[in-house]
User: Fold this.
Amino acid sequence: MSDLHAAIKKLQCEPDTSNHAERLAFKRGHKQARDAAAELASAQLGEADLLRPDAAVAAIQFALDDDDGMQFLRLWNDGDFDVIRSEWPEAPEEVFIGADPLHKTSK
Assistant:
């Protein structure tokens, strides 16, 4: 379960009426809306994960075509992304997405 899903499920309900029947109906509607929103958020996040490029695959593919590919992979594996940017400016952005926590996508 994602953090967003959990946060939606924890949203508090604060009915603005003192009528008991209205309060119960409000809470029931709130729970149903909260559950539906949490499921929608989970589905969206799941789809986003399927579309996200795999940084490891991109790094390996790039390394296979580079003369110093093993050095590139060692640095990538150790998280030395600044060195990679400096030594391999032609490296595709996909090698950083999801691997480098400080990476900002250009798109």
Remarks:
- The CA atoms of residues 63 and 73 lie 7 Å apart.
- DSSP finds five helices and no strands in the chain.
